[in-house]
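Please supply some protein, with fold tokens.
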Amino acid sequence: MPELPEVEVVRRGLADHVLDRKIVSVDVLHPRAVRRHATGAEDFTGRLVGRTLSAACRRGKYLWLDLDSPAAGEDALLAHLGMSGQMLVEDPANPDEKHLRVRVRFDDDGPELRFVDQRTFGGLSVHPLADAVGGGLVPEPVAHIARDPMDPAFSADDAVAAIRRRRTELKRALLDQTVVSGIGNIYADEALWRAELHGARPTETLTRAQGHAVLDAATTVMTEALSQGGTSFDALYVNVNGASGYFDRSLNVYGQADRACRRCGTPIRRDQFMNRSSYYCPHCQRRPRR
């Protein structure tokens, strides 16, 4: 699933191409694409036609487009990219993609917005904006999501305190989007390697300095990934113009099992973790004693 850098790449592309444009028609070509919109495809379409996209926003991994003037109770178009969702800006004359699910046309006859999703795990929905737990306005379904390390209003002190209160393993806390958002499996492993901490470290034994170190590392690695267009492990993650990111070439541990650690030369290890994988250096990142 795309993490913060990949979603931010898409958000920036949408900000460049679809803002201040009025919607004149919406075609829902597959019902699963709007299954999160509880009142159905007809209501979804009706709540978009005639509206103007006024801002492209993100919190953590969550992306949305404000409709008209953003205010509490006003609507936003929430996009869930899932495993293969793509928000593409296309010339209307270009052929439809094989897995095109939703098409949005504008009154200027310019490029249209297409939601393409091969695996249909993602989707679009319209929700009112609400006050978020961490402050600010976000669509109601994501009001519980914490701020992310790249948010100007993010408080590292508060996030470290929340992690240390969690009474769980460090990597699990980093992946908990109610504690700190935007960090997924890839960037958690990369941040832990940079901070020289093992993901199984009990959060209650974490010092404040170590907490800040791993969050600083997460911020740094995600900033570097963003500068390279994100991480693409298959052809399904692309920006709004269909281009892939290439940060996967810079990964130190994720996906590097049995390769030499770039810091000490020890082979990188892969362990099972929450139906996924964790990658780490057994020398640089000592497993905590039970």
Summary: The first strand starts at residue 21 and ends at 28.
